[in-house]
Amino acid sequence: MSVQLVSDTAQALLQIQNVSLEYQTRDRIVRATQGVSIDVYEAERYVLLGPSGCGKSTLLKAVAGFVAPAQGRIVLQGQSVSGPGPDRVVVFQEFDQLAPWKTVLDNVLFALHASGTLRGAAARERALYYLDKVGLSAFTAAYPNTLSGGMKQRVAIARALAMQPRILLMDEPFASLDALTRRKMQEELLRLWEEVRFTLLFVTHSIEEALVVGSRIALLSPHPGRLRAEINADAFNLQSQGSPAFQQAAQRIHGLLFEQPAHSTPPQAEQALA
Ligand SMILES: Nc1ncnc2c1ncn2[C@@H]1O[C@H](COP(=O)(O)OP(=O)(O)OP(=O)(O)O)[C@@H](O)[C@H]1O
């Protein structure tokens, strides 16, 4: 009998129940996802993977409460999501998500103050704690325009973790970084997860990134996105990248996404799905 990662009887932290998402444009309705059902459990690193336009970002925005489902519902810890809240924090791809007129420390403090999460010395202590966790203790007084792209993303991650959200939402957070920095950030994210054990919902269109970052991966079909399969990726990390098992998993995912037999697609160093 095989051992399952997740107990069937455990209550999922996040339940995406038969969710269809739509945009109303001037002349038509664009359906982004179709009847997607996903359960995400406490301390999972759950990845949404699929080709460009399959609705990954829209699904993440719906969990964040920015987009209301046209059908189905999203439930976080037993409560229906009906709008944004400090229990869900998003880290985006863009480097301009920090306030440029605030220092690194003030960017983190502002989130804590504005959301009513913490004030005074307690807020400062928590902000400094998470800035230290992302290796930015020496840059608390710096302004965003003096930081590299990777450092800005670290501030955004520290700011998000400082909120101690029930779930951290990341929308292709490393996609604008060069390959080396991206790898380093993946490594840091996994190290942070080992320490803090937050629950993560992570969007990417890179098969490799999904396997490295995720403990489970949802494969979404092309537009409109439907759940095609869920893959257990707990066995993989940056060290296993390039191993035969890793390459096989990447090949299998590629096959599942594009409905090709797994053996017909040679594995590549980086399999992006754009
Ligand atoms: N504001 C919008 N108005 C109308 N249609 C939209 C809007 N945002 C997204 N869409 C459409 O919804 C679908 C899903 O888009 P979404 O950005 O969620 O996909 P994605 O999988 O995240 O893609 P990518 O990997 O390219 O970011 C696409 O067809 C897109 O054109």
UniProtKB/TrEMBL annotation:
Residues 14-249 form the ABC transporter domain. It holds the Pfam family ABC_tran. InterPro entries: AAA+_ATPase (IPR003593), ABC_transporter-like_ATP-bd (IPR003439), ABC_transporter-like_CS (IPR017871), ABC_transporter_ATP-bind (IPR050166), P-loop_NTPase (IPR027417). Keywords: ATP-binding, Cell membrane, Membrane, Nucleotide-binding, Transport. GO terms for molecular function: ATP binding; ATP hydrolysis activity. SMART domains: AAA. It comes from the Bacteria. Belongs to the ABC transporter superfamily. This is Sulfonate ABC transporter ATP-binding protein. It comes from Rhodoferax lacus.
